[in-house]
Amino acid sequence: MIDTPLRILLSYHYYRNVDLNNALARHFADLHLDIFADSGAFSAMTQGAKISLEGYATWIKKWKHLISCYANLDVIMDAETTWENQQRLEDMGLQPIPVFHVLEDWKWLEHYVERYSYIALGVAGMQQRKDAVMAWLARCFAIAGDRAVFHGFALTSWQVMKAFPWYSVDSSSWGRGFRYGEVPVFCKREGRFLRLKLGDLTTWIRHAGLVQSLGFNPADFGYRKNNSREKVCAISALSYILAERWLRKHHGEIEIPNSLTERDLRDTSLGLKIYLVVTSHDVPNVQFLPATS
Questions:
Q1: Does the pLDDT at position 34 exceed 80?
Q2: CA distance 30 to 129
Q3: pTM value?
Q4: How many CB atoms lie within 10 A of CB 139?
Q5: Per-residue confidence band for 292, with pLDDT thresholds at 50, 70 and 90
Q6: Which residues are registered as beta bridge partners of 196?
Q7: For residue 152, which of 101, 108, 133, 292 sits 20 to 30 Å off, Cα-Cα?
Q8: What residue spans define the domains of the chain?
């Protein structure tokens, strides 16, 4: 068994009415979890829903014993209101990670770097423009220097994860297998993800050595009749844990600099950390089989 925690991101937008104790026990029984909490503001915006700041604060306080860290309630394309929310949550006794968005004035990033040492970056709306995103991120890291580290929201691109020394990122791409039948399997020898299609026996046999090294039987994925949602989740989650290990070797372990303000983080361990976005309430049990280190 591997000793790395399973890192997941839960959004208030999706889980505000869910008993997290029961949900985590049902879906992630006996696993060591590291939980990043987010308001889900972007998802709510795209669905025409609204997020209550007071409701989000109450939810964070209720489940704080389960959560390692949590982000501010950000307002896309409204840096002023995002900052107001940061201050209001702090006035409520919370210490959320501040959020800076693409296309916002650079003065806001300077503002946050002067005050915080762990900042989240949002690229919502520009993910498809990779060159522009890479240039924007390069400037963010240059401005921060050694004063702050970053969390990257909704990073589905391995190229972006690999290009910068993130402290943490989150991604929903681990779910491509059980959502679209395209399973992400990490190959540490090549330092990249392979996308293997469920039911394509030839492909799974071609990569049988890799799949078996992760503790799985290629036939369970190559034959559709053998497909198990639980095993698809398990090999995908395990692959992202191994990708996290690879990135730690690639960039070295990353530490949050001495903070200018008192942080409220239960987990101050070294990065890089990849959090798996869990937006569905019916994620099956994730149970890892033995895997090589």
A1: yes
A2: 40
A3: 0.92
A4: 12
A5: very low
A6: 183
A7: 292
A8: 6-181+248-277
Which DSSP category does 5 fall into? P
Q: Which long-range contacts (CB under 8 A, 24 or more apart) does 177-181 make?
A: 177/232, 177/233, 177/235, 177/236, 178/229, 178/232, 178/233, 178/236, 178/284
Q: DSSP readout, 157-200?
A: -HHHHHHS--SEEEESGGGHHHHHSEEEEEETTTTEEEEEETT-
3-class secondary structure, 271: strand
Instruction: Give the separation between CA 60 and CA 78, rounded to whole angstroms.
Output: 23
Question: % helix / strand / coil in the chain, to the nearest 5?
Answer: 40, 15, 40
pLDDT single digits (tens) 207-228: 999 999 999 999 999 999 998 8
C-alpha torsion sign, points 15, 42, 76, 136: positive
Q: Two tokens at 284?
A: 């099956």
Quote the distance between the C-alpha of residue 159 and its chain's center. 15
Note the pLDDT of residue 30: 80
If you average pLDDT over residues 88-104, what whole number do you get? Answer: 96
pLDDT at 188: 95
Q: What is the CA radius of gyration of the chain?
A: 19
Classified as helix, coil or strand, 34 is: strand
Length of the chain counted residue by residue: 293
What residues contact residue 242 under an 8 Å CB cut-off, 6+ apart?
A: 186, 188, 214, 291
Answer CATH for 6-181+248-277 from 3.30.750, 1.10.1760, 3.30.70, 3.20.20: 3.20.20
Residue 246, classed as helix, strand or coil, is helix
pLDDT tens digits, 40-95: 887 777 787 889 999 999 999 999 999 999 999 999 889 999 999 999 999 999 99
